[in-house]
Each structure stands twice: as C-alpha cells, then as structure tokens.
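Aminotransferase class V-fold PLP-dependent enzyme
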Amino acid sequence: MGNNKVTSNLESLKALSEAARCAEEYISGIREQRVSPSSLELAELERLNSSLPNKGQDAQQVIADLHHYASPATVASTGGRYFGLVVGGSTPAAMGASILNAAWDQVAVLESSAPSAIYLERIAAQWLLQLLELPEESSVGFTTGSSMANMVCLAAARNRQYERMDIDLARTGLAGAPPLRIVVSAESHVTVHKALSILGIGKDQLVKAPCDNQGRVRVDTFPELDETTIVCLQAGNVNSGHFDPFKEIIPMARAAGAWVHVDGAFGLWAAASPKQRHLTAGVALADSWAVDGHKWLNTPYDCGVAICSEAQMVHRVMTTQAPYLQAGVQVPPKDMVPEFSRRARGVEVWAAIQEMGSEGVAALVERCCGFARQFADGLAKLGFEILNEVVLNQVVASINDESALQQIVRIVQEEGVCWFGTTVWQGRVALRLSVSSWATSAEDIALSLDSIRRAMEQVLEAK
Ligand SMILES: *Cc1c(COP(=O)(O)O)cnc(C)c1O
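Predicted structure tokens:
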C-alpha cells in the first residue's frame, strides 16, 4: 500500500503537470487559433482512434497525445470570437477552480461526502439569489444546465399543482390523473418542451401563448389560467434576447392559482446589471427559475441552476432516503436535483463570483450588451437589416438574398476569424450572433465585422 501510494501520487502529479503545460500552451494560443478547426485538424483526430487498447499507456503520454491531436480540433470558444449558440468562456478563477475541483474529486451528495464543496455550493447559492434578486428562501440546485434546471422546476410545479387536487403523484403516479393545463410561450425554448415531455406532458397538451415580433408573449391574447395551470415564460429569447412582460403576466397568473416558471438560461443575468435590470422587472414574483452558470456567468461546462421559491416542493420531488444516508442539518444536494452522485458545480460558481464581485458580473453583462450593439451598428453599415431590437446580447440580421446570406456565413465560418450560425426569425433566414464571453473585446467585434465584410464582397462580386 505504502509503495503503491507513492507511485500513484507521482503518476498523478506527472499527468497533472503535463495537463497544466498543455492547457497553458492551449490558452496562450487561443486568440490566434482558428475559431472552428480546419478539415485537416479534424482529420487528425483519427490518430486518437486506435483499436481498443489491450495494454495501458503512461498517463503523461495519454495527456500529451490528447493535447497534440484534440486541442487543435476544439472550437476556440474561450478565445472571444465565438458567437454561436449562447456560449460563455471560462473566467480565470472559475477555470482554475475547476482544475482544483477535479483534483479533489468530491462526490457532492451529502455534507459527509464533500464538506467543503457543499459548503461552497451553499454560499454560491446565496450569492446567486442576491445577484439575480430572487427570494432568499428559495431552493437552489446545481444541475448540468438549464435543460435539467427546467425539468427540476417543472417537476416541482407539476407535483404541486396535483397536490392541490389531493393527488400525491409520488404515490399514485401520473396514470389516471386528470391533465394539467400547460401554457407555454409560442417561443418557448426546445428544452422546455423536452422537460415537459420527460415529465409526462405531451405536445397536444400544450396551450401556446401567441408572441409579438420580438418573441414576447402578448398580454392581450394570453390564454386563460386556473389553479391547474403551469405557465412557462422566458427571460431572454434564444434569437432576439427579448423578455416576456413579467410584470403584467405573473401577478395575473398567480392570482388564478397558476404556477409560473421562467426559463432564464442566459437572460436572467440581466437582473445582475443595474442598466439591464429593467428587462426582468417583476420576474421575482414567479415560482421557479432556470438559469445557467456556463452561459453568461462564464463558469466552465457544465453548470445550470434550478431555483424554486417553494423549497420544500423541490425537496419532496427529489428526495432520496436510505439508512446509509445520514441526514445533515440542511437539505443535501441529492434532494434538490435529479443526480445522486454528482460533481460540485457550485464550486466554480463560487470562484467566478468571488473573482468578479457583483460589480464585475454587472460589467460583464453590460459589456456583452454593448458589443451586441456594436455588431448591430456595424452590420447595418454593411447593408444588413437588423431584425430584432438589440436589448441584450443577441443580434439577428439578414439581407434580402437568402442564398447570398448562407454563402456569407459559410465563408466567414471557413475563414476562421470568428464563428456564428444562422437561424430562422419571424419567417426569415438570418445570421444569429450571441455575445456572452468575458474574453470578448471591442477589437474582436471589429475583426469579426471585417471578416463579414470580406465575405460579403466576395459573394456580391461573384454575382
Ligand atoms: C441554452 C438554453 C437552454 C438550455 O440550457 P442548457 O444549459 O443548454 O441545458 C434553455 N433555454 C434557453 C433560453 C437557452 O438559451
């Protein structure tokens, strides 16, 4: 045992220092690396695909090979010029904490299994509620992302609405239960639909609330509500970045006995900024919220947060009990999220907030919003039509010629200076930009606009 201990520690140290060396090389070159890999770099991945190895290999060599072949074929999303999906980078302290967290390798089930990690998650939870201005007694569960956070919150919503009908779902199950009324925004994110479907609520059961041309639900045509209703609103439309009118809808829904859930994967972070907070006015009156760490807070993947004002409801749905699981004083993570064994994702949340402070988080949000406006102005000068009101970090823009637009986007992606994709917004094919990274600078936006201009000239000259 003694000798084995020495060897295993030594091997770990060698692998770790090799990983640190490789990561350092990767990070120091990230701003020069193509944002999406070339076909050659992708082809090189083959070198990692041997037949199933019979014999093991030296850990240090495993890391070196990983870096050599896989690092060049990554998307340089931490470099500041990746504008696809909604993707944050990883702040320095959050990335460092993630490495330390890996070294700890804690199973964050119970206080006894991960004391410091769970302690940090509790602090991070309190800080999150303060930053987002949400009720302080809420339960806060750290999930893999907003998909799972939506599911946790909607599971609590579903069971609560059934409890009101004297149906204990945990005992009886869904079979035979009368259907709930599920009102979703016509613009709800696909993961809300997935969460509902996993929870036994099908597409035919959904009542869609019509939206305006910014993707906000309309108050005047909002569907009827009652005490069997769950309402799904959103903070931050995945295309336009816009917000539902919480101040009008939520009090009305709550008065009717409905449960209101808000999918705020990235948009809820507007609440952390004095300049953007007006967009989330009234959101704190909802019953539950899903938000991501890995998007706008710029913690590493993966990290979402399920927040529920009726903490006991989440605990009732997620609880697990067995004689070998000694209860602590507070509700353990295993009773706030679906996972039992889990990584303490809140550690990186703690580190990012400790590093930035509330002022730094506000500045990050405001900086990204400013860059989105810079993008929109630049695109308008190039002759694009901006299809959304740029109220947050999202820009949707188009030109009249759809095939030319597709060509422009493809040329930009191939050039590798920046990366973004296309979407369909209000029936029109458009390019879609999301500015969500702490690493993005004004120069990155200028370089990206140059790349778009070059692609545009190339496409229009060829006509
Ligand atoms: C990204 C996103 C989700 C899903 O979140 P994940 O963290 O990817 O699981 C849900 N809703 C909105 C609005 C999003 O932008």
